[in-house]
Amino acid sequence: MTIIPTGSRSMSEVWTTRSGPEPVEQAEPEQPELAPEIVFEVRNLAVKYGSAVAVRDITLDIASNEITAVIGPSGCGKSTFIRCLNRMNDLVPGARVEGLVRYHGEDLYDPKVDPAQVRRRIGMVFQRPNPFPKSIYDNVAYGPRINKMRRNMDETVERALSQAALWDEVKDKLKRSALALSGGQQQRLCIARALAVQPDVLLMDEPCSALDPIATARIEDLMEELKRDYTIVIVTHNMQQAARVSDRTAFLTTEVDDSGRRSGRLVEFDRTATIFTHPSDPRTEGYITGRFG
Questions:
Q1: CA dist., res. 264 & res. 112, Å (int)
Q2: pLDDT at 4 over 70
Q3: What are phi and psi of 81, to 5 degrees?
Q4: Torsions phi, psi for 89 (to 5 deg)
Q5: What is the CA angle 195-179-116, rounded to 5?
Q6: Per DSSP, what are the bridge partners of residue 255?
Q7: Predicted pLDDT at 292
Q8: Cα(248)–Cα(67) distance, rounded to whole angstroms?
Q9: Mean pLDDT (the chain, rounded)
Q10: Which of 2, 91, 203, 241 has the most other CB atoms within 10 Å of its CB?
Q11: Does position 129 have pLDDT exceeding 60, yes or no?
């Protein structure tokens, strides 16, 4: 047996002071990115007006709490596509939707689904502000009233206007006509009106095309705030806007068949940074660099 003399170091001390390379700290393993919740699953979507095909071959997923931009040249079916997401095309005579649109896993076009309830859960803001010829208060309260939503109406109006970043500007004039507001204020009022029924998704069809740059910036800032609570799909002709505000971008273009008929078609769908820096299709690159469209 080996005796360690008094005053000598113990074996544990020898090991801890042994010469040699310092131990290397192991880096924390990267956590895999969690897959986002899918709100819409669109598969082989086509929309026809009589014998004319407006859009076809659209397959994509829209994720929760993201802003998805839809871009493309005029006439490629951008608005027609997003109107499929809340069944607004049902209101167009002769329109027929084919393919599959699932909303949180449910077939949106199942005969048992009530279109009115779909539009309550999936709100829409149009290209031009369209306030009702009523007071500011009554514009926001309109949806909750017709849906017979039992809640404190004053609180509902204040919450919706606050979410739309309009409350501080109108809180002292709620009984005034909404038509007296500026264009940018009217558009934010329309957003508040859509939010008042507590939707899950907000569809925005070129919401800034009729607004000046200052009002446009307010709407863009608002979208960034709203995506914390809502899923947003926006149609825009402004590619800089799509690059600024969206998380993912779908590019649609127009194709002409042998008989000369035009129809819109999805070319590419990816993260916005990828679409604008490394598009996989030359048609996408041609559009975003201004060579056509």
A1: 29
A2: no
A3: -65, -50
A4: -70, -15
A5: 35
A6: 263
A7: 66
A8: 7
A9: 88
A10: 203
A11: yes
Taken in order of first residue, the domains within the chain and their CATH numbers are 36-288 (3.40.50.300)
67 touches 220 (CB < 8 A): no
For residue 277, give every residue at least 6 positions away whose Cβ sits within 8 Å of its Cβ, in sequence order, or none: none
User: Measured between alpha carbons, how far is 178 from 118 in angstroms, rounded to an integer?
Assistant: 26
Is-contact 125 203, C-beta < 8 A?
yes
Residue 15 scores a pLDDT above 60: no
Per-residue pLDDT tens over the stretch 207-266 = 998 888 998 999 999 999 999 999 999 999 999 999 999 999 999 999 888 777 888 999
Q: Copy the structure tokens of residue 189.
A: 């009022």
Arithmetic mean of pLDDT, 181-197: 95
43 pLDDT higher than 80: yes
User: What residues contact 220, with CB distance under 8 A and at least 6 apart?
Assistant: 208, 241, 244, 245
Tokens of 49: 């007006």
Beta carbons of 230 and 202 less than 8 angstroms apart? yes
Task: Specify the amino acid at residue 245.
Answer: V
The tokens describing 10, both together, are 């113990």
Please say whether the beta carbons of 231 and 65 come within 8 A. Answer: yes
Cβ neighbour number for residue 105 with a 10 Å cutoff: 8
Rounded to whole angstroms, the Cα distance separating 69 from 211 reads 18
